[in-house]
Amino acid sequence: MSRRALKAINWAAIAERIPESEKNVLAAFKTKSDQYLRKVQEYPESAPKIDWAHYKKLIAVPGMVDTFQKHYESMKIPFPADNYTKVLDAQEKDIASQVEEFIRKADQIIAQCNQEIDVINKRLPAENMTMEELIEAFPDINVCTKDKPLIWPHTPEFQPEYIEQQIKESPAAH
User: 95-141 pLDDT, tens per residue?
Assistant: First the structure.
């Protein structure tokens, strides 16, 4: 494994998805991220080569530089294992499929609502309809049927049931 740094983050796309109240937090995070990235890029990918011959000339102790060279070259500093990328990729695929399913269902609902809006917009406004046209256009909300017609002006106080109810509730009826 090697050291690698993420070089391209679409900050504009992230900024579009967060609320206005969180923009300052994103700006602070972006500043820190840029600082860390610059710091990582300051260092070379691998350690600089050591001129062992130069040190062998300078140091008089026999075998000391050879021992250091042997230990230095055999030393392996492990890079931390990446245990999360596979998990995150799996979660991303799962969430992406859920998002696609949600979008598909939402598009179906939107299409259905647009059809209903078109039907409503093509109708004559309710205030311009006759009672028969209103009954035909809105059968679910209509209280007037062939068995129970409404009496003009179609307000509750002019209906026979209302009058009968008033008579039953009056003190003289008891």
Answer: 999 999 999 999 999 999 999 999 888 888 878 888 778 777 777 76
- Bond before 153 cis per omega within 30 degrees: yes
Q: What are phi and psi of 157, to 5 degrees?
A: -70, -10
Any idea what DSSP says for residue 124? P
Give the pLDDT confidence of 78-88 residue by residue, as tens digits.
888 888 889 99
pLDDT tens across 23-33, in order? 999 999 999 98
Question: Which residues have CB under 8 Å from 159's CB, separation 6+?
Answer: 150, 151
pTM of the model: 0.41
SS3 per residue for 64-103: HHHHHHHHHHHCCCCCCCCCCHHHHHHHHHHHHHHHHHHH
- Residue 2: other Cβ atoms inside 10 A: 6
- Sorted by sequence, the CB contacts under 8 Å of residue 150 that are 6+ apart come out as 131, 143, 144, 159
Residue 126 is given by DSSP the state G
Q: Rounded to an integer, what distance in angstroms lies between the CA atom of residue 89 and that of residue 104? A: 22
Tokens 């209302």 belong to which residue?
162
Q: What token pair was written down for 55?
A: 């040190």
